[in-house]
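Thread: quick sanity check before group meeting

JM: Hey all, I'm pulling together slides for Thursday and realized we never actually wrote out the predicted structure for the chain we discussed last week. Dropping the sequence here so it's in one place. If anyone has concerns about the input, flag it before I start.
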Amino acid sequence: LDPPKKGVREAVGACRRAGVKTVMITGDSPETALAIAARLGIADSPAQVVTGEELDAMAEEELARRAGGYAVYARVSPGHKQRIVHALQRAGEVVAMTGDGVNDAPALKSADVGVAMGSGTDVTKNAADVVLTDDDFTTMVRAVEEGRNVFFNIKKTISFFLSTNFAEVLSVFVVSLFLWRYDFLTSTQLLWVNLITDSLPVLALGVEKTSGAMERPPVSDKEIFSPRAILSMLFFGVMLSAVVIALFVTFLHLYGNGVATTAAFLTISLSELLHVFNVRAEDGRGKLRDHFTNRTLLVTAAVGVALNVMLVLSPALRTMFRLTPLSGVQWLWVAACSLFVLPLGAAYRLFLRRVRGMRLNRRKRCIPVRGSVR
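JM (edit): ok, ran it. Output follows.
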């Protein structure tokens, strides 16, 4: 018996918790394959084992229907490997296939992700998408975790950019349509918001480790633009825009156009900086202490706030950006309207949890009960 490598069983367990099913394909006998699979935690029942002869007796539709129930393919020939990949793909699975020999090349080419061993043949390496230089299964698991971190960071970045930019566009559109006689945000101010205010938090989001990335079920790449994600972007975009426009109109009547423009510029800049904490809370980091786990984000947010305040306090920068000094009361209004985005995000997440809970309860009530209830 060739014992499993150290850490492989733990890696298989990590895959299982992450919703990734590990399948063994081997030329060994079913008994030997099941014994090794049981040690690794891949299979524990003979019903999860299928042989090459049984595969030959199955039609393509039947194999696609039953492929999800198998964890061990024993006594298979090289030609079976590509057929197994196609069956799993027809069943709706995303398949990563590993191999090192020339006969593995067709299956690696057909898989969604072909992984060749570094010790394998050149033909296999050329057919693969990824070459595993250390031939270690645990390296693949760490790569999956890193890939999930990248995916969720990209999702959060897109959500942040689209919601904040939608708020800017909507604000300018509404003010230009109904208050066209007054000055609103200048092109220089909008450029500052896009290049400085929006960019600093994204840098911190890009290096963040997603909480519990390997404890979640897999998600589709369409999750980035799912209905729920689009609804979140639209909601925060509309609400940020509404707060900025409301403050602009109020200050316009109380203090004049110059103060109103300055207050609107600061509010949209600072509220967008703070909105990054709402975006970050989408992966379950909604508690106050969770916001202190990413020090880079705190530093970039603090720098962004300081830079925006400096624009108003510095006479030279104030003139360059066509801003107006604010009184203490006016600064308090700007701070309150900017901070409003945080309780707004908490209320929105609470609403989503309530709706999700109602749906789950409704599904439980709809489960049919077999037999009679006396």
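AS: nice. Residues 369-374 have pLDDT under 50 and may be disordered. Residues 91 and 356 are 28 Å apart (CA to CA).
JM: adding both to the slides.
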